[in-house]
Amino acid sequence: MLADYHMHTSLSNDSKYHMEDLILKAIELGLDEICITEHSDYGTMGDYVVDYEKYYQRYLQLKEVYKDQLTIKFGCEFGVQKHTIKDYQNDFKEYPFDFIILSNHQIDDIEFWTYQYQKDKSQEMYNRGYYQAIYDVMKAFDDYSVLGHLDMIKRYDQLGIYPDELMKDIIIDILKYAIEHGKGIEVNTSCFRYGLNDLTPSRTILKWYYELGGKIITIGSDTHEEGHVGYQIAYVKEELKKIGFKEFCTFEKMQPIFHKL
C-alpha cells in the first residue's frame, strides 16, 4: 500500500503543477491512493487561500475519471494562526473533507521562509515561539487530522539545527495533546529536498511520539511539481518500522484507516 498524503497543484499559490498531471504521475508510479491538500493560509501576504469551490469541482471531476486507477481523497493544508481560527472553522463546515493537515507557516502573519520572524530573535526564542504557536492553536482548533511537518522551523534556521532535546518539553506537550485528542502527525518527505540530515519530523520526535503511544501517522511528499510525487515514501515506511511503528494511516471523512507498514 503506497499513499501520498500531502500534495499541491496549480490551485495552490506556490505550484504550477496541474491536478490531472499529478494524478497521472501517481498512477504511473504505482501509487494506490493520494490525498490532494491544497494550501489555505489566511492573513499572510494577501491571503493564500485556495478557491474551494473550484478545487472541489475539479476534484470531483477527476476522481470520477480515474476512479478505476487510483483512490483520490479530498483534503487541505490549513496554515492556522490563533487569529484565523474562525475562518478555518467556517471553511471546514462548507466542504466534505476527508483529511486536513494542520500546519504552522507563520506567526502574527510573519513568515518563516522569508526569515522575518527569526530576525532579531535568539535561536531558542524563534524555535520556542514556533512550537508554542502550534500548541496554542491545537488547544483552540479541532478540525484537523494530523500535524504537518512538525519541526518545519528547521528548514529556515540559518544558525543550523536547534537540538530537539532543548525543545523537548513543548514538543512532548504537543504530542501528548495530539494523542489525547485523536490526532496524528505526518512524515513529510520534503526533508530530502531541503537537504536536512533527518526526517521531518526528526527520528527523535517520531520516537517520542511512538513511546507516548502515538499511532496515527500519514506520509506525504509535499508535492509541488512532478519530481516530488511519491518521493521516498517507501523508504519512510521502512524507517518507521525501525522505530517500532506497525501501521500508517489514510483517511476517509476525517476518520483514520490503518494499514500495515
Number of beta-strand segments? 12
What does the main sheet amount to?
Answer: 8 strands, mixed
What would you call the shape? globular
Helix/strand class: alpha/beta
Distance between the termini: 8 Å
Mean pLDDT, nearest integer? 96
Tell me roughly what share of residues is in helical segments: 25-40%
Based on the model shown, name its key terms:
261 residues; alpha/beta; 8-stranded mixed sheet; two-stranded antiparallel ribbon; 7 helices
Description:
It is a single chain. A hairpin with a 2-residue loop joins strand 6 and strand 7. The protein is 32% helix and 21% strand. Strands 1, 2, 3, 4, 5, 8, 9 and 10 form an 8-stranded mixed sheet that branches. A two-stranded antiparallel ribbon has the order 6-7. With 261 residues, it is of the alpha/beta class. It is globular, with a radius of gyration of 17 Å.
Describe this structure in a few short sentences.
With 261 residues, the chain is of the alpha/beta class.
